[in-house]
Amino acid sequence: MAIKQFEAESKRLLEMMINSIYSQREIFLRELISNASDAIDKIYYKALSDDQLVFNKEDYYIKVAVDKANRTLTISDTGIGMTKEDLESNLGVIAKSGSLAFKKENELKDGHNIIGQFGVGFYSAFMVADVVTVISKPLGSDQAHKWESEGAEGYTIEPCEKDSVGTEIILKIKENTEDDQYDEYLEEYRLKAIIKKYSDFIRYPIKMDMKEQRPKEGSENEFEDVLEEQTVNSMVPIWRKNKSELTPEDYDNFYVEKRYGFDKPLKHIHISADGAVVYNAILFIPENTPFDYYTKEYEKGLELYSNGVLIMNKCADLLPDYFSFVKGMVDSEDLSLNISREMLQHDRQLTLIAKNIKSKIKSQLQSLLKEEREKYEKFYKSFGRQLKFGVYSDYGMNKDVLQDLLLFYSSKEKKLVTLEEYVSRMPEDQKYIYYASGDSIERIEKLPQTEMVADKGYEILYFTDDIDEFAIKMIMAYKEKEFKSVSSGDLGIESDANENQTETEESDNKELFDYMKNALADKVKSVKASKRLKTHPVCLSTEGELTIEMEKILKAMPN
Ligand code: ADP
Ligand code: MG
User: Fold this and answer.
1) Of 18, 30, 35, best ligand 1 pocket probe by most atoms within 8 Å of the beta carbon
2) What is the pTM of this model?
3) Which of 54, 335, 390, 538 sits CB 3.0–4.6 Å from 306 for a disulfide?
4) In Å, what is the CA distance from 11 to each residue of 4, 126, 490, 532?
């Protein structure tokens, strides 16, 4: 029988794949099980539109079996199977996904569970196997075929016998070498653990024959090993489970499995709402800013499921812009599967869920701030800017939600503080919340304008982000204390120097001031004697609402 070559580019790709795409070998099992699950799903979707085809859920399962003596691991399914052509095109061409084509042909949009799309998962089998044999009998045909390959060299296909429709993937597990261990993939308990870790929510049973110790018949203290077929996956998705059954690792794994991000989430929020609106949600606050987060390309949204079936990958209506960093999913029984995007926008249920989620996120961030300050600061470093944008946008409509989540650097504490902390420390005679703007903490510290306020013993908030001042203008006042820039004309501080002194200084030096004003021509409005300087000879100050920093930003903005 002639060996067919993989397509040229496939050969190189296969070598790369096997050696580098996956950092962990054990995921080969996840990939093969996902394919098996996809194959069963395909029958399920076909049955939806084909009256001749009945889908009895009990008849569909995945089986994982080992044969230690022959070093084989077999993953079989009762799915749709593959024809000879399927075997050639789906397994003979790398990066070709039959599952993606299936979704397109059947116009399945978001409402399906089919996982495959990249057409590379299957080849991960070669990370642990010398030989991969696929025996498959497609739905609606009597002829089965056997596909076999030893890796990059190519594959063979021949007709063969198989009783039932479905696919069997047989892996000849590699021998242990000095550096690499493969025997573990022939150990039932290890395989079961891998399945639990990655494939626990696969909706079809994954069965294994597990060795169990049983008392010997007729004897009370003698035991024997018996093989017992078990379903090893729980099938129930994580969000339907009780919080008390779940560990932090379960959530972390879910985050990775769903590819919400490449980092580890900073915090998870598991909601099982049972009141006016019924839904389950698992939300995550990521640790790191996604690379495209502060760009137009970034798309916010949560996955939306109806009764365990995905309806939408990124439902934007579930998150306000200022919480756009949140990742996760929502499952509600009350949403219709066939609901369109337009209808979703007006769905009362969805609006309620979104409102509910918003307040949950807020309270979780608040408790993170109170109870795990360090973690909160990490979060704030990644997403604080988004919160400040949130305060500023929509004419400050959301300031009440957000103002207590803001942090600013404090001149006194030399670290980030909340507005609440600032106000609670204010001396009785202090009227305003003072702030100073600049490029960096070091530069603000050198500003002559800060001197007078600092000398009074008042705390100053340092604004180093260009959005800071705009956000604060929207808040206007916190706990009835207004914000005041240290460079504004009237600082509201009773000066020790008396009024007359500055007045005489001004009249005595009238010529000098006039000269300076002329020299600076249209750069300044006036030159005055100042009461607020101590060690610095001059400073700039503004009249009216805008500070110098804000004017700079406004000037830099495109019209
Ligand atoms: P993907 O799953 O991303 O499509 P894979 O490399 O995992 O890519 O699989 C390639 C294709 O082979 C699948 O799209 C599917 O058409 C086919 N396939 C793989 N495993 C099976 C199986 N157990 N039953 C039926 N078809 C399968
Ligand atoms: Mg796959």
Assistant:
1) 35
2) 0.59
3) 335
4) 12, 13, 75, 76
